[in-house]
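pls design
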């Protein structure tokens, strides 16, 4: 996986389409934003090192599709996988730990803050508040980072979190060694996935079922499923289209500049020819 400079102002991020990490040059030049660039590089590198797909864990494509088609499943798994892989890389590269800490400090500055994805943000915009499962996933990361839950979360969310707190702690620390082979990585990834599926997801699923009693959310989910693409897949396609458009625009600009240069060159030649003609006349 490559780590390279992206375009200024585009943000530091992981590009799923091209399997690369792009760092915003403005982040690197600004000490107040350099933390994000450092964290993105370390965090996404950690995922590549110890996170594995469902199919690589032995699940069929149909099983993976069934699991991840459930509202909140992917969000919930990522909410525990992120802290786990953060634990893995930060224990080896402790010089990057302060950047990670400051990044999460900013994200959890407000009580009951919800970590947004495009899908979650769309739900919040439609419903006027975050669904229960979004609070649940966000609070799993918060408790890993701060050791405590928010004060202002719904009571049923708090109860669900308390019931699976020990399972979450187990997940966060079920990691391969510092320099594992692939067999060890897969073994640990399988046991983490099992912990989520059997001990954490059942609690989260109950919250999802409560959330879906809201007809507006249920309609959003039905429309999303009817489109045939997950939010993640749509993001990847949109990103690929955006980059293709940017490349086309850059090419057009380059072509325009070359054409302008050629016209200027031709005009200069005509001026020289005119001068020569005048002298000869």
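designed seq:
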């Amino acid at each position: 996986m490559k780590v390279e400079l992206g375009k200024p102002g585009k943000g530091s991020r992981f590009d799923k389409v091209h399997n690369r990490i792009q760092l915003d040059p403005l982040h690197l030049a600004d000490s107040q934003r350099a933390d994000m660039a450092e964290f993105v590089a370390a965090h996404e590198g950690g995922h590549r090192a110890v996170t594995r797909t469902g199919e690589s864990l032995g699940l069929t494509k149909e099983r993976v599709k069934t699991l991840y088609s459930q509202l909140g499943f992917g969000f919930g798994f990522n909410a525990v996988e992120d802290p786990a892989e953060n634990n893995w890389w930060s224990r080896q590269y402790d010089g990057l730990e302060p950047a990670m800490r400051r990044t999460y400090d900013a994200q959890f500055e407000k009580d009951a803050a919800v970590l947004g994805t495009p899908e979650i943000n769309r739900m919040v915009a439609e419903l006027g508040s975050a669904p229960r499962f979004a609070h649940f996933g966000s609070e799993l990361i918060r408790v890993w980072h701060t050791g405590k839950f928010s004060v202002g979360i719904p009571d049923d969310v708090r109860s669900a979190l308390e019931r699976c707190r020990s399972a979450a702690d187990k997940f966060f620390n079920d990691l391969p060694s510092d320099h594992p082979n692939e067999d060890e990585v897969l073994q640990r990834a399988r046991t983490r996935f099992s912990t989520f599926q059997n001990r954490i997801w059942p609690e989260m699923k109950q919250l999802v079922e409560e959330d879906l009693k809201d007809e507006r959310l249920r309609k959003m989910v039905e429309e999303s499923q009817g489109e045939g693409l997950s939010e993640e897949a749509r993001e990847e396609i949109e990103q690929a289209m955006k980059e293709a458009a940017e490349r086309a625009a850059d090419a057009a600009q380059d072509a325009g500049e070359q054409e302008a240069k050629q016209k200027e060159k031709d005009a200069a030649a005509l001026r020289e020819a005119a001068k020569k003609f005048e002298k000869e006349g």
